[in-house]
Design goal:
The structure is a homodimer. Chain A is of the alpha/beta class. Helices cover 44% and strands 16% of the residues of chain A. The longest helix of chain A is centred in the last third of the chain and has 18 residues, at 297-314. The structure holds a DNA duplex.
DNA sequence: TTGTATGCGTTATCAA
DNA sequence: TTGATAACGCATACAA
């Protein structure tokens, strides 16, 4: 394990001081009018010895790590997996590394992981928080550290975020169900304490009310297959009549719903119509193809990353931004006209 | 942005030297027989001032970052997303952070990202390399840095890995197709220069030969939806008869195949039988449910992480291990008996 | 039992 | 035009 070369090695070899080496290597040669041959020699030696600055030392000195903490509720969920991919790639392009954390949608873990990341002196945080509990986030902002929310955000207040226009998506989706004659609709939701979920439920409710429908149900409490499955089971076993349509607030929930329907030998859309958030490639090939509300996940990822890093580099005082990008409703074949 | 407290602050407040503070905080109080009251006072002050050691400074001093570089070909692919999730969670449990990199299955990017991670002085690397090109990996190993391969590995040589028994999986899957009477089978493969792909193709080929089948085709070159789609299009448009069964070497490829079959109005399994690597929840609800070869992705992730960190902490000289975990074939309804 | 002083590899201030 | 030196925050060899 040969010792890595540092500026001292180069300085000795070039017969100059480490100061000079540091300056030349940082492109400050011209500024300090360091002689042409000296510069050239230093560059050559650095090249030849394959010199790489020690980033840890740089970080310590400059108080800048060029690392961004990315905190997500569930990297396994395809929506967040895609988000992670985009953010990682975009950050790299701008010279930043991503330190990843998975909170498993648990607020205690979220707070612990945030601490851990801050201890690592990351320059900024991108997070999809798992609830509306925001004290830990506000503290970070107060400390001056840059932070941006993706997908999940805080309702009220002014913590910057980039997300989907969830209200619009849910409203339009529900309207579509209503226009197809459905009057008995259930909505299976995810984590109830998250903004996207709250907005989606609101859009759903408003649309129902607007159409004078009083017969709607809201059930469930997490963005998981299991939740979709269990809630559908309950829905079907209830003494009340089964809904003619179900709005699933995530693709994971949809999968659970499908499982329950299959077990009950109910077919889509003949017995039950379905519409789901989070467009996924597989939806085209389900039986039947499932209509969905496609979130602009790529745009959310690239935009959030860009804005965050821009503000980091311009040293703008405060990041202030609340962006809701419109989702697109993709019609397939899972809703039946009544 | 108030200045963060450091051991000097505490030392001043406690009226002792920074050495003593450092020792006490690192649990070396007893060892150096530092007086009980002194210890207590230091702990109290640290607690009260919410002291957190500066990890960057520690890293510089100890030459240990407690960070692991995770390099994957495509975080968006559900297989790798799950892997990333597991590895991130397991690493955290052991006190390590994950620095994430996505190579987009590109060897040049892979090498560049490796350099970048090494420059960050990560303690070890977990990687699913995108090809058999391994010079950059071997160099890292020679330097003494720990590295472990997951899923993708290098055939021959002794670079440690944890992966699926891909040969077994493909052989058994193909055998199943053959036992159902199929004699004209196509295999749509992924990146041809990766070990899993090579082993799967080998398993496929061997099974075919064993059954005396000469009529088999191997097509494709990447683990993407598009590849599955295009290759199926070609297969169907060829002057030769279409295969009666297709073995898809990933779930992404499967989705492409489904698209092409749908466009050609061919149904599964009546016209074409299907079998796919990478079990995914949605496969249960496709039309028809697709039988698959389920890789033990959780086990791969936890085991690789455990072994790597163990070896890191025991300071064992060399990591030497090649593990192939058996996949499980999950039978659904996508293969027809001829 | 505690402290002084050095070094990890940089960058930046000040002096020459 | 260049260089000594301090500082970033911590851990530790050596002294006392």
């Amino acid at each position: 394990m040969q010792k890595r070369v540092n500026i001292k090695t180069i300085a000795d070899l070039a017969g100059v001081s480490i100061t000079t080496v540091s300056r030349v290597l940082n492109g400050l040669g011209p500024k300090y009018r360091i002689s042409e041959p000296t510069c050239k020699r230093i560059f050559e030696i650095a090249e030849e010895m394959n010199y790489k600055p020690n980033i840890i030392a740089q970080s310590l000195r400059l108080k800048k790590t060029n690392a961004i903490g990315l905190i997500l509720p569930d990297i396994g969920n395809p929506f967040f997996a895609t988000l992670a991919r985009i953010i990682t790639i975009e950050s790299k392009k701008r010279g930043y590394s991503i330190i990843l954390a998975d909170t498993e949608d648990n607020i205690d873990l979220e707070q612990e992981l945030m601490e851990l990341l801050l201890d690592r002196n990351i320059d900024a945080i991108i997070i999809a928080p798992c609830s509306q509990t925001r004290s830990h986030i506000e503290e970070v902002i107060k400390s001056g550290k840059k932070i941006i929310l993706v997908d999940r955000y805080y309702i009220g207040g002014n913590i910057p975020y980039v997300t989907t226009d969830n209200y619009y998506g849910a409203y339009e989706a529900t309207k579509y169900l209503l226009q197809n004659g459905h009057r008995d609709i259930a909505c299976i939701q995810g984590s109830t304490d998250t903004a996207p979920n709250i907005q989606r439920v609101k859009g759903f409710t408003d649309a129902c009310k607007k159409f004078g429908v009083k017969h709607f149900k809201i059930a469930g409490d997490s963005f998981t297959i299991q939740n979709g499955y269990l809630e559908t089971k309950l829905l079907l076993s209830s003494s009340m009549s089964a809904p003619t349509a179900i709005l699933c607030l995530s693709s994971t929930i949809l999968l659970g719903v499908l499982k329950a329907l299959k077990e009950a030998d109910l077919s889509v859309p003949d017995n039950v119509s379905l519409l789901s958030f989070d467009n996924q490639p597989f939806m085209d090939y389900l039986n039947p193809p499932i209509s969905s509300i496609a979130q602009p996940v790529n745009e959310i990822g690239t935009f959030a990353t860009k804005v965050l890093i821009d503000s980091l580099e311009e040293g703008r005082k405060k990041l202030n931004l609340s962006v809701k990008l419109r989702p697109q409703i993709i019609l397939r074949n899972s809703v039946r006209l009544i």
